[in-house]
Amino acid sequence: MSALKLEDVLARADILPALPQVVRHILDTLRDERANAELLAERIGSDPAVVARLLAAANASAYGLAGHVDSLRQAVLLLGIEKVRAITLATAIVDRYHSAPPFDAQRLWLHSLGVAVCAREIAIHAGLDAESAFTAGLLHDIGQLLLFAVEPAAYAETLGAKGRLDISTVDAEHSCLGLDHAAVGAALARHWSLPEAIVLAIGGHHAPEALPDHELADVVHVAEVLSHALDLGGAPDNLVPELSELACARLGIEWDEFAARFPEIDARFDCICLMLGL
Questions:
Q1: pTM (two decimals)
Q2: Does the pLDDT of residue 247 top 90, yes or no?
Q3: Domain coordinates of the chain in residue numbers?
Q4: Cβ neighbours around 274 below 10 Å, total
Q5: Which of 32, 53, 152, 193 has the greatest number of C-beta atoms within 10 Å?
Q6: Backbone φ and ψ of 149, nearest 5°
Q7: How far apart (Å, rounded) are the C-alpha atoms in residues 215 and 207?
Q8: Is 210 exposed, middle or buried (0-12, 13-18, 19+ CB in 10 A)?
Q9: Which residue has the higher pLDDT, 139 or 85?
Q10: Residue-by-residue DSSP string for 61-72
Q11: What distance in Å separates the CA atoms of residue 231 and residue 224, rounded to the nearest whole number?
Q12: 14 DSSP 8-state letter
C-alpha cells in the first residue's frame, strides 16, 4: 500500500474512545503539589470501573486486617497515592482501548505495564518524576492501537512482516506503512492535550538520541529495552531492542548496580497485573 500520512491518521483519531476524564484528573495530580488522598479520591470517584478495581485491590491488601474496605477514601489511604495512580491509569486505559485479532491489545497492555513499572524505577534511580515516567511508559505504544484502528489490514500485514523477517516493530512499520507508532502516538498524545514531556517521551522512545537531553524519553527508551530483557509480559516473539548507551549515560545508569532492582521490578509488575486481572 502507499505510505500513510501522519495528518491522515490523526484525522481519524476519534475512532478511538476519548481519553477518560479520570485520566485527566490523574495527570492533574502529577502537577499539583497539594495532591493528597482526599483530593485524589474526590477526582476519581466518578468512574465506577476504577472505584471497583481500587476497592478490590484495597481489600486484597487488607487481607488479615480487621474490617472491610468499603469506601474510596479508605482504599486510597490504604493503598497510597502511588499505587492508586497506577491502578487508576491502567484501569481507565486498559478497560477502554481494545482491538480485534490479529492485534492483541491485552498483550500490548501487558508490555506497556512492564515498561511503565520499569520506567518508574529508572526515574526514581535518576531522581526524576516517577509518576510521569509511569504514565509515559503506560502510553508509549498507544500509536500502535491507533494505526491498527485506522488501517487494520495494513497493520496486520505489518505484524506479519515483523514476524516473518524477524525485525523490530518500528522497522516493519516504516517498511509497510512509511511511518511508525512512536510518531503516531506522540501526535495522538498532543491531540489529547497531554503534557508536552509525555508527548516527547512517546515520540522519542525508540530514538532518544535524536532529542537533546530529554530525560523522560531516555527513561522510556531504557524501560522499553529493560522490559523486553526481563520478559515482562511474556511475548512469544520477544525481541530485545538495541539499547542507547547515551540514554543510559544521561540517566547515570550503571547496570551492575541497577540490577539489584530487578527482583523488585518483577514483583511490582506481577502485583499490578494481579490487581488488574491480567
A1: 0.90
A2: yes
A3: 1-16+100-278, 18-96
A4: 11
A5: 53
A6: -65, -35
A7: 12
A8: exposed
A9: 139
A10: HTTTSSS---SH
A11: 11
A12: G
Identify residue 155 by its one-letter amino acid code: Y
Phi-psi region of 120 (alpha: psi -120 to 50; beta: other; left: phi over 0): alpha
Who wins on pLDDT, 35 or 184? Answer: 184
Architecture of the domain defined by 1-16+100-278: Orthogonal Bundle (1.10)
Cα 76 to Cα 212: distance, rounded to the nearest angstrom = 38
For residue 110, CA distances in Å to 144, 191, 269 come to 14, 24, 9
| Dihedral of the alpha carbons of 108, 114, 115, 121, in degrees to the nearest 10 | 170
Mean pLDDT of the residues in the chain = 87
Contact 5, 23 (CB under 8 A): no
Sequence-distant contacts of 229-234: CB under 8 A, at least 24 apart: 230/114, 230/118, 230/262, 230/265, 230/266, 232/110, 232/111, 232/113, 232/114, 232/115, 232/117, 232/118, 232/265, 232/266, 232/269, 233/107, 233/110, 233/111, 233/113, 233/114, 234/110
